[in-house]
Amino acid sequence: MKTYKVTFLPEKKEIEVEEDTTLLQAAEKADAFINNLCGGEGLCGECRVQIVSGNAHPDKHTLGFLTGEEIEQGFVLACQTKVKDNLTVMVPVKSRAEQEKILMTGSPVVYGEPEKVVLTRRPRERATSYDPLVKKVYLPLPEPTLQDNISDIDRITRELRKVTPYQDFEISLACLQNLADKLRENDWKVTATVARHNDTGRILKIEEGDTSNRDYGLAIDIGTTTVVVQLIHLKTGKILATKGSHNLQARYGEDVISRMVFACTRGSVDPVHKAIIANINNLTRALIKDCRINPEDIDVIVAAGNTTMSHFLLNLRPCAIRLEPYVPTATVYPQIFAREVGIEISKQGILETVPSVASYIGGDIVAGVLACGMADRPETRCLIDIGTNGEIVIGNNEWLVCCSASAGPAFEGAGARSGMRATAGAIEKVEIKDGTVQYETIGKVKASGICGSGLIDVIYEMVRNGIIDQNGKFNTTRQNPRLNVEDGDLRYLIVPASESETSQPITISEAEIANLMKSKGAVFAAIKSLTDYVGLSFDKFENIYVAGGFGSSLNIPKAIAIGLLPDIDTKRMQFIGNSSLTGARMALMSIANYEKTLEIGRRMTNIELSNYTPFMNEFIAALFLPHTDSKLFPSVKYRR
Amino acid sequence: MKTYKVTFLPEKKEIEVEEDTTLLQAAEKADAFINNLCGGEGLCGECRVQIVSGNAHPDKHTLGFLTGEEIEQGFVLACQTKVKDNLTVMVPVKSRAEQEKILMTGSPVVYGEPEKVVLTRRPRERATSYDPLVKKVYLPLPEPTLQDNISDIDRITRELRKVTPYQDFEISLACLQNLADKLRENDWKVTATVARHNDTGRILKIEEGDTSNRDYGLAIDIGTTTVVVQLIHLKTGKILATKGSHNLQARYGEDVISRMVFACTRGSVDPVHKAIIANINNLTRALIKDCRINPEDIDVIVAAGNTTMSHFLLNLRPCAIRLEPYVPTATVYPQIFAREVGIEISKQGILETVPSVASYIGGDIVAGVLACGMADRPETRCLIDIGTNGEIVIGNNEWLVCCSASAGPAFEGAGARSGMRATAGAIEKVEIKDGTVQYETIGKVKASGICGSGLIDVIYEMVRNGIIDQNGKFNTTRQNPRLNVEDGDLRYLIVPASESETSQPITISEAEIANLMKSKGAVFAAIKSLTDYVGLSFDKFENIYVAGGFGSSLNIPKAIAIGLLPDIDTKRMQFIGNSSLTGARMALMSIANYEKTLEIGRRMTNIELSNYTPFMNEFIAALFLPHTDSKLFPSVKYRR
Question: Are A474 and A463 in contact (CB under 8 A)?
Fold first, then answer.
């Protein structure tokens, strides 16, 4: 079979592929990332690339995604274009995902450690009860005598009982098999690595001499979009470094549903599973290199993700999650050796996956509840996590209820021609004043598109300035030079082509606004339904915590003003960023916190909205800016 | 390299071996068993074989073990003879071990189920609490609905909670990974195999449909000399079949000490470990074939053996057991997958090893305590297990003490020219009356030697008839045609050459009697020291149970009369045979019994006799028939 060379710019990644390979597959092989929402079906148009040299053969049907100008410039859809020549291909910023915002920030603070959480709950602040899930204990043992000739392993556990919370211990056969020699050859000085396993101490390994300082763990957040790995020195509780990257599973679909469809119909679970393992191994290798540690000294991982991500992590088939009645294989996941799924840490290192509650309430939410501390205190609080799904939790130390609503990926930049994820070049803040649009982009570079927080700002600013009405329709009674017809649709101009990175104007249409309103409506309807379900009103919430991938640029007052978030005193509202990672780290660093994730998972009552009539009514009522019932938003006043 | 064919008679086992292979190694390869006590060092003379055809080249030094007549007949020591020709070799009865007494008895009753134990404690007699360590549970599950959409594994554990004693369950990742499909493809009808693991239920596998009838377990006694495997149908508690064979480890030494020396100095642990695994696999294969079951349906093994055997079973180094201060690697052994040590049952099948107490009080004794029920009742009882070591346990439901004394292998037939193990042709009963000797052999065949119970009888009969005095010395004042000088030693003739299988006379010398007196003295001294230690006297024992490899032919009154066993009412004394196997089976068939083995192991206090002065004094006092203190044996009267 003929092979051709394909070079992906700007990174100059080269690959030799067989004839008829698609450009998307070639990019996958070359490790050049190209966005795609639909999993290579030619349905989303996200994988636009520009042929710089060579003859490409795009599938004609998919040219409908491209403007005439784009076609002239050599743009094609990578998933629908087969290689029949040596090619040089430019992947435009908009189609790349390497420069996720999450990657550009070195400090762990970015991951949204709310100050309150840091001060009151971060395990390392409470030295007396600091007790990580896996602990290395140095044991200088007394030598046996005829008066004290208990077995070698009993000699070890006798000491461990004094310094760990466990009474009973488990040990693997392999660990026992060389124990006698190890003790005698090292003058009875060894270090035991002990993990919590159910209520017993599981001895993972016994090392020669004192290795108690070489004791590391990983906290991992497996987001649908991004994966973040944090390296922690368990002896001190210090966060050594954090790295994040896009989720490589995006090759198989942008959102969880399309990945499930791939895994359960066209493809199989295995490649989707392997993608997330590759993510974790890549990030871990980078952390190990930066911090100059030995992977054999990483003995524990706590990972949090939504239920589908947790299934893919463990190579469980998530196929019944997708379809009514939405049944996962498991919500509480077994403690496994990380090597069982191919994660390259210590041979005996364990992987704990934060438990889920149901198919659409995952470990990320359980970790979030842990992180914000709402399950510990008597006052009622609310946690709102906004992504493709909006998950809501309400409760206190006595009860917790939750629900999940499919919000669609609008706030992640999908479904809008100029929408994009929160990566470099995305507009994250917008202000419209006297007909001029001011904006800020991530990375302070030329604008390539607009992300979730930018879209919230845009809608708010458009209503405030009377450009759209409270139904989301353009006000065509007034002249507006920024409002133009394009392909038969009215579009509002945010950034002219001359200013943008892509030389395309950044605009928004009525249909796209309607789509965003559906998303915000679904989230708000879920919050309102759940609040009604428990017989409360918003003002009863001591706090509302907002988590999600917006980045730190989320403007809460504007999010209230468009009716996405409830209208309560913004002092009681807090953006807590990546609370999934925070919760995973807290569980890693404290047995009590880990056990709390199990308790939270058990205590949370999930309300299935797909089965719940009030939700549909609330959804319809929420398709207005801010809401058809203005009494719900007393502080929001638009000029009429 | 040249190869030669060696044929072992009488079984006609043929093997092709390289030049210079020893006959012992060749026999090992050919699976023709030849006794050897010293592990192939040319020190014990037990591996005599007869060259029938071909030229053998025995090492000249070892010819000292053979009489001139034997040399003429072509006898050589197999371990010291190298193959340099095609050979046909006869293995005489005395050098064979295939026909252990244990093998010749099909019925499980032979394994010494004391009647009391059968009636009061055998799990299947108590149907209501019959609860094997591993249980298959058929689960016809309700299909999930939107109102009942718990995870697949929760759906399974919800049902298991109703029918097992467990509240919490563990499951392996492998078992979870194909669960979703298995349930949906089988109409929600599956069978879960659940094992006790700590206090939780460990789900070993989930099978399609109803397999609850295909549910088997093995109880195994790993004796130093013999290995017995028993197949049990766990659903009904029925013993399906029992098979035993010599312990293949005998290749590396007859007793535990020489095997430890081999494993820790000349050789390594691995071959000794592999030998016992081969034993278990051979016996299991034979049981599987006879009972026509699938090895994949055997999901659990409970094995009991002394501490060294348990270490060899699990491939733990027993090297510190042998030397002061006698420290084993472990006394409580982890639950492992049988496949981890190469035992060929179900992939997920588990192996539980009955816990030991100390280096010389093993799981066989703990199983024995379980079997005789002494740890359950308020009256104080005593268990005596006689082998190369004599182990003694005294106690009741409140306390248990134990000790072990090195008795030497005299009662196993070693150390005497005519001694042999309790195999076919061994004299097991002797009576001397009016100068004639009457005897019975195992298997009712021609006598080849004399085993433990026969030796006890011989000593008793010799004292009773005034042939020896109470010091064990021959009475030479009276003429006795059976007393002859041979190689400078006086020897008493039991069986003349003309009547014996080997055409050698079966005789006993003063030195051999002295050796037996040391063995019985050590056992009695241990019983006496331990009884004194707890401040009791023999008459306070409600029962004395005697266990060990004597076979059912042990004559208790004669064992008392020579001072081996305490002089109490023989109605209160009971021979319980292989109580190690009985205990292992009881643990297999009941979780409560298994847990009792752990409790017994923890409760038993071991007294180190090597460190205990009263024992040495008792030992010296016991070197008399029956004892220097005749008040200890009021019922024993010999004519003076």
Answer: no
